[in-house]
Amino acid sequence: MKDPFMAHLGFAVLHLAPGEAVVAGEVGEAHLNLHGTAHGGFLYALADSAFALASNSRGPAVALSCRMDYFRPLALGARVEARAKEVNLSRRTATYEVEVVAEGKKVALFIGTVFRLGGEAA
């Protein structure tokens, strides 16, 4: 799937399979907040991209709800991955957990639920 926003942020898809995805990015100058660390919006966009790819791998889906907890800051140049996995799949909804990881440490945790537009049997 081509996603212009992901391309703009420099994200790369490392893995895509039914119900899962891994997306990587690198913290650049333009991704820093006023503290000089990775902006939460950059990390959210990375996690949301993995969430979107994993959930749409099962057919068209749109987000119903998302939340993200941030655990540690990231410095300029940090390589970071968002690893999405399906934790629940039903005919109309699905829920995904996305771990945001850098240097072997969990940086953030994103949980999202989608509405499955096709409604195919799970």
Automatic annotation (TrEMBL):
CDD domains with a match to the protein in the record: PaaI_thioesterase (cd03443)
EC number: 3.1.2.-
PANTHER family reported in the protein's UniProt record: ACYL-COENZYME A THIOESTERASE PAAI (PTHR42856:SF1)
Annotated keywords: Hydrolase
Protein name stated in the entry: Acyl-coenzyme A thioesterase PaaI
Organism whose genome encodes this protein: Thermus aquaticus
Domain Thioesterase as annotated: residue spans: 35-107
A Pfam family that the UniProt record links to this protein: 4HBT
InterPro entries: Acyl-CoA_thioesterase_PaaI, HotDog_dom_sf, PaaD, PAAI_dom, Thioestr_dom
GO function terms (MF aspect): acyl-CoA hydrolase activity
Ribosomal protein found in the keyword field: no
